[in-house]
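Customer escalation, tier 2.

The customer says the design service returned an amino acid string that "doesn't look like it belongs to this structure." They asked us to rerun it and document both sides in this ticket. The original structure tokens are below, unchanged.
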């Protein structure tokens, strides 16, 4: 379940049940206790008044009169805006770059410090370059919207990522990898990951990835990715 539907489900559950424990909410929406704690913090940032009652018989209670008072963008939503701008810039097709950058800067200033930290860590994983004219893009398809939220959690918490992958010949396999970077070579987007089964880096076209799922309880270390000379970190691009 993506973050916004999950947050809405938590609010509905609290309104319906009156009091719920972290464990009950985690089971209901199908995520870990740690994720529920982060979600509760997000809901409080959005203006929901959620009380915590410790001890036996306690739990979380949503104030009956509580409503969302702020329309905060999530890290994933802001990152989607940033990478869209970066992609257009890399393709040489960003006619209003100054206005776009000014708007994004205002959004970043409005974020809480923990969200800014997550955003910058996420940006550190983003690279752009130029696609070789020899690459065949005739079979390019739309990228699943579920990828970015799953990537956010996998990158920030350094969790392994599982997904189905369709190769150039149409064969479908299930892959479990350690995500290290995202690479934009307009118009193609790639997940760059360490493949433990093959003990090497692999580039996965995002339009060929489906059913992404981060794996709770897994962890990995950040690795240096040996990119080609024409690839640059987004943070190093001149604005």
């Amino acid at each position: 379940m993506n973050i916004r539907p999950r947050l809405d489900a938590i609010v509905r559950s609290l309104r319906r049940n009156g009091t719920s424990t972290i464990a009950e909410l985690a089971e209901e929406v199908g995520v870990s206790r740690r994720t529920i704690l982060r979600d509760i913090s997000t809901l409080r940032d959005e203006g929901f008044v959620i009380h915590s009652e410790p001890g036996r018989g306690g739990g979380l209670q949503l104030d009956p009169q509580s409503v969302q008072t702020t329309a905060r963008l999530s890290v994933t939503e802001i990152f989607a805006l940033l990478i869209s701008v970066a992609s257009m810039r890399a393709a040489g097709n960003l006619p209003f770059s100054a206005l776009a950058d000014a708007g994004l800067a205002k959004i970043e200033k409005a974020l809480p410090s923990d969200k800014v930290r997550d955003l910058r860590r996420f940006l550190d994983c983003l690279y752009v370059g130029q696609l070789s004219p020899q690459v065949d893009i005739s079979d390019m398809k739309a990228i699943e919207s579920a990828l970015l939220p799953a990537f956010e959690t996998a990158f920030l918490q350094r969790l392994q990522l599982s997904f189905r992958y369709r190769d150039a010949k149409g064969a479908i396999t299930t892959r479990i990898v350690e995500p290290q970077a995202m690479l934009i070579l307009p118009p193609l987007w790639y997940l760059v990951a360490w493949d433990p089964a093959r003990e090497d880096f692999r580039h996965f076209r995002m339009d060929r990835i489906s059913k992404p799922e981060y794996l709770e309880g897994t962890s990995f270390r950040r690795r240096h990715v040996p990119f080609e000379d024409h690839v640059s970190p987004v943070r190093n691009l001149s604005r």
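Tier 2 assessment: The sequence is consistent with the input. The chain has a mean pLDDT of 85. Residues 120 and 235 are 9 Å apart (CA to CA). Sent an explanation to the customer and offered a walkthrough call.
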